[in-house]
Amino acid sequence: MIIDHPLPQTIREIEHLEIPMPDGTRLAARVWMPEGADPEPVPAILEFIPYRKNDKTLERDHARAPWMAAQGYAYVRVDLRGTGESEGLMTDEYTEEELQDGCDVIAWIAAQDWCDGGVGIVGISWGGFNGLQLAALRPPALKAVVTICSTDDRYADDIHYMGGTLLGDHLSWASVMFGINTLPPDPAHVGDRWRGMWEERLDGSGLWLENWMQHQTRDAFWKHGSVCEDFSDIEVPVYAVSGWADGYCRAVFRLVENLKSPVKGLVGPWSHRYPHLGEPGPAIDWLTEEVRWWDQWMKGRDTSIADEPKLRVFLQDHARPQTHYDTREGVWIDEPSWPSPNVERRAFSLTSDGGIGVEGPQDALDICSPLWVGRHGGKWCSYGHPGDQPGDQRREDAGSLTFQTAPLQEDCHMIGDPGLTLTFKVDKPVAQVALRLMDVAPDGAATRVSYGLLNLTHRESHEQPENLEPGRQYTVRVPMKHVAQTFRAGHRIRLGVSTSYFPIAWPAPEPVTLTMLTGECVLDLPMRKDAPEAVDAFGPARSAELLELDVERAPGATWRLGEDVETGLLSIEVTDDEGAATILSQGYFHAAAAKERYTILPEDPTSATGEVTWTHEMAREDWSVKTVTRTQMTCTACDYLITARLEAFLNGDCIRELDWDVRIPRDHN
Fold this sequence. Notes:
The protein is of the alpha+beta class. It contains eleven helices and 34 strands.
């Protein structure tokens, strides 16, 4: 990465200021702006998230925000109500209160002497979500949006459910926020108020997982904040960004297709990261690209970005199956719109002897997958950590039905969302199906390219699922994730079909035998009509000067698979160590680490267990805080069982212990 130092103009940083809300609550902000913005006001860019401006995101913000400020913008990082140094209480994500606060913050920023009255909003993940949601509310000062790794649909395409199946990352993500919600404000910024604010959070934030599990279908809870309910609510320009390894790439295509306001989409090879930090690489000069967007819509400069093709994607070349990639080979290509006139769907029949697109028998095939299928699937949302991308799929194929093409006669380029029209029967009232699309090299190595999940009780609706009638014939279309992938000549395209995919998806309550009626099953692939032309898209990644840290423990992650050969118990153990460091400019120490463990017996779906522990520490001279949160989820055939524990320590003494023990009925999953 190129470090731009010195920056093209002098920057003023306000480490902490408080923004008053109409109800008297004060939200904490950190602001970077050009020196002299008071007499010569500039547009502002807001990032509005719960991840603590003073520690958890400061390293990232320090490399990004001053760079933006040097291009003539005030960059305003605001902690949500009840997080960081902000007052109040946060009891869930994307609440009406949060969005109203966002509108009020935008109005406050626009009224400051250093702001010219125009505000843009940017964010990755949470900040990408609420950026779209705030745009739909149309606050007058909001001029443009950059949304990264986000979604327009909180139920069907978020970390909670995929195709109506309950995701393992649902537990993982709830546990992340369980830990963050235990953290106090920094006494250096809020003074003696910190203790009361902290205790309010410990006692009042609640167990979000319990609330989320009360909503297992696409009800009003999930429709709130899902801008896909009415895309016309958004009238400002939107730049939507994601990566193929991220969980949220599909939303980019829907936004480009459905927004009537100016829109641009970008999808790289990346995991859940900003593109200038993108991994797998290549990372790009995203900050320059982002400023082009802001300059076009915030300053009225013609940067030509409005005239460019609406969609740019990284067309991935073949890669050997690995659970982590530093970089992916491929080229950038442009599409004028989505759907693209350059892409056509091609239909391929399946045969019961395992063929795709060839003549052959079309008999019924049965599959009841062992519950070890999915152990090599990685995470629903990759963070670029070792182990969290899918490994060689031949092991998963052993517990699946598989179909494949003959060796390809020429290179083929797929861009979009593959899918399977599946005609089937099952022997249980609740069932799921998992699809894997693979690039198979001549030596047999199988790289997963895309995948899809569907809870078959949701075959007609995510809002009103219906049990299946054993033995009855059904036909559904199972969509897979969007991707741009080149399949080389001599390679094969393989489809894997299984009845489970743990721990990405929580298993159905009973073992299920699914019968595929192959003669009525069709695989459709979005193939580019002609070989695409590569574009010289981006320079190398750039940033401002990095934050100076005294690192005690470097960040790291591990992913371990285990098997008890006596009991058959299968385990996946994941560590996510955010590291431990002191921010030298503040004399402030912070550390965080997580351990996740998922276990299951190969033939018993009710043996599924997920456990997540987060430990957070922070300290200043004569002050230290530590919190430990533990969450476990198990199940019966009828219920989900959740236990959780919170422990909070001040200067080594335990000042709070809270426990939860919850039973929630399963609702068609």
